[in-house]
Task: structure prediction
Amino acid sequence: MQSGGNQSSRALHAAEFGLHSIGKAMLVRFAVSTAMVGSGKVESDLSVSFQELLEAIGRVKPSDRALYDAFAPVRKRIWRKRCIRWLSGAVCLAAIGLAVYYIPWVNWQVTAVGRLIMIELLPYWDWTPLYRGKCLIAKAKETDAPKKYAPIASFPDDCVVCQNFGAVPVRTNVTYEALYRDHLIRNVPIIVSDVHLPWDQHPRYGRDWDSFLLDLEDLLLASPCDFRTNLLFSPRTAKAPAIARMVDLLASNGSLYGNGTARGWFVQLRNCALPPIKKTRTMFEKPYFYATHWEPPYTNWMLLSRAFHPGAPELTPNMAGLVIVHQMRARLSVTLRPRTECKDSCGALSLTLHQQQSLLFSTSLWNFSYLPSDGNETSVTFITETYESL
Result:
């Protein structure tokens, strides 16, 4: 037994000595080979050295445990390199993702490249239905339920809410709790008089009327879905040059005819597409009483008028939902009329909105009408419609 153990020990030492000698030989040959010109010679020398190493191991015939222990440092180094490589790749991917998300110009470049790739994929995969669809999962069946922004039908029993007041209250420093308790839940309109700064202190325009007209021209060129004016013969089919000339007429700001009468005009437009709605958010700030759980307005209106004939008929835009009328400049004569079901129980409410005032009401009971301004200063009114999620 002792002689067998001595033989195993000698075999192990011989294997280690052989590996050590062959390792030195490989290093020497590798150093010599790197000095030679041509990669083919280097690969050939490495193949010969590796073959000699395999033959030496085969002659010694060491045990599996001896080979495992002999090559442990090599395995550890290989695994360390792999882990470092994987970790470096993960860090690089995370850095690229953060750069795309937080750096605007990187995001723009990646988006542009992505769009080009998607365009190239069109001959092989028509993804346009997914792009145009509002929902990736189709509904199981169509329902007859009304749209969310459709006005809620009023019933005669609901008309008693307008018997408790005879005028629209004007309040300041309104909290959402007071607004909900005293007005929204009772369907009582309210005027908040401290929502916006005076027009000459507007953070975007101030006294720069031309800057406002440029933004207004962008809204007009975005094809508003409800457009009325007395400045164009056919507003519904007006082309871009005609709209540009109309904006020039607005810039004149109150010139007179030869007989001294004012050139009265009005412009009414509704923004339904998402880009113009986003633009109006930069033009006019959200009121401070706008609750955080309310959804953003799904549409908005712009009403502009100046020196219009005082005997002109009222205009009644078709609105639905929770409506907030912001009088940004000058004044506007407004009438709230009850819906058809309540016309015998409720009377019309006539009021004048002045600069900095905002009127809030629900179309479930009231219809909105207005008279274009007959004053010498251009009236600017901004109206939002949102869902009645109180």
Q: What stands out?
A: The chain has ten helices and eleven strands. The radius of gyration is 39 Å.
